[in-house]
């Protein structure tokens, strides 16, 4: 019969960076259904993940007891443990025993091999408070800046370019500003799949006559609605964007006042784009010169033009250069600093913005305060009550570098909270070997992930609806997620686990409530200084920068100044750098990886969500129908995709959204983990790997 909820809890969606507000309807410690709430980003709307992807929390495979690897059981890279046979690999333990073993083992590594032999990976799925405490644990307990999370695989390059160019790594304008823009460029993003509710505002804008320009090597639902769709050749972003800038310079469409009063470095940029005429770039990027001219003119001359981008821009060895070009376009035309303009890197995870803000990155303390600056370290040493000179003055290792250091035996101990690098890291066979080689691996998660299969100690954590905390969406909106369920069995809240681990490695912490952590954060992070816990409880959401109490929060920034030296932005020119691995006779096709609407990242949650897994149950590769024909494979038939690093077998789906010669594979399927095939070469500035391009061979069967 119809079940009536006995409790309603107001929270936010655990999946993407759009940050939809929702209401959990609960009965007997189970979510019955989810409804959209009238939040600033979603106005009641939810996508299929937010609405139906909740029952993972009560899945029978949830970890409910701490686990310790059995003596003598080897770590086999690539092995996924059948949930029915967990007891052959691990034994259940008390919290006391598991925490003591984990803490003592890591401490011993630190004391024997030095702080740099330890690393912590936090998670963009956790709250701001979890991220903050986790980085504080690594910096003050492990004793180095070896802390990172999946922003490294996501928008690290966008953030690097934004910090360098305009002084802030976050968006300048919220997604909802598409309703006020006349021209909207969406480049290297597939928002109907990855930011579905945000995509609805973009679609409406297009239907209302705004000029939507989609630029992407792949077709998408959004490109069908576009005023112009530039299906450029994979890996040719810089050629295309420099050509647009060339047009803007040559046709006198630059905003001279803006350039003069608010920027530096224009002459260098102007000189650089000189060699990139649309006629010269057309054969490289595959877009006719006249289209490049038309789009450049339209962007430059509209009353308000906005650029939104995703991983198609960022996940390249030249990801930082790609973002530099987008920034330069906005600066040379003055299309920033007003509603309906600006730069918006669409953030992926629900809290990747907040986790980065909270300092879960190796080169910066909370609020992007640089670890290399002595006065910054002195300030944090004072706030964290440390002896002067305690904090490490060198940036730590990034995600991909950590795997290399572990393979070389330099990193020996790793504490992972909520991430799954065995699935998400490029060249995952190598990453799994590196994980297996560690002296001690502690994994804190809600399921026995592919990474946890290689752990020494597994700590059963809490799912999103089982805890309270703040989460920052792609619009810089700090929102409150509230606890709706009790964790199952002996599973504990992550904040408690971090604190217990901190105690074991010698830190004397005593935070009783999540709000105390938030309060400490706002005193160390000027941008959220004015946001109080009380206000969040009342208002549910506040946008930063919000510097003083009573400050309403600022959704559109840079109207007068840029937060850089002298208050001015900086142009940084970019030249063409090819992908690290190009197709050749042996590996003739291009592999592009990404996501699917129904599944989230490494699949640990959504593949255990009944409705979502029923819609997309099997690993698929999206291949152009003519390529599939040429391979002699029927739609739905088996394919093998192989690179110099690894191979997987999965089902081929005929799909003309990819151009011929390029195959698209989502990275969420453990049984066909595509990251075993991808390349781990990375952008030299941001250390983001090239997940959007490598050479593969595709064969039938
Ligand atoms: Fe959740 Fe994103 Fe879907 Fe909104 S758009 S319901 S935040 S997954």
Structure description:
Keywords: 4Fe-4S, Iron, Iron-sulfur, Metal-binding, Molybdenum, Oxidoreductase, Repeat. Residues 6-61 form the 4Fe-4S Mo/W bis-MGD-type domain. The chain has 701 residues and is an alpha/beta fold. The protein is 32% helix and 18% strand. The protein has 25 helices and 28 strands. The protein has a seven-stranded mixed sheet with strand order 5-4-18-17-16-6-7. It has a six-stranded mixed sheet with strand order 24-26-25-28-23-27. The chain has a five-stranded parallel sheet with strand order 10-9-8-12-13, sandwiched between helices. Strand 19 (469-472) and strand 20 (477-481) form a beta hairpin. Helix 3 packs across helix 21. The model has no long low-confidence stretch (mean pLDDT 97). Bound molecules: iron/sulfur cluster (SF4).
What's a quick, concise take on this entry?
This protein is of the alpha/beta class. Helix content is 32%, strand content 18%.
Helix content: 25-40%
| Shape by Cα distribution | globular
Helix vs. strand class? alpha/beta
How many E-type strands?
28
The hetero molecules present are: iron/sulfur cluster
Distance between the termini: 46 Å
Q: pLDDT average, as an integer? A: 97
Radius of gyration, in Å, reads 24 Å
Main attributes?
alpha/beta, 25 helices, 32% helix, globular, binds iron/sulfur cluster, NADH dehydrogenase activity
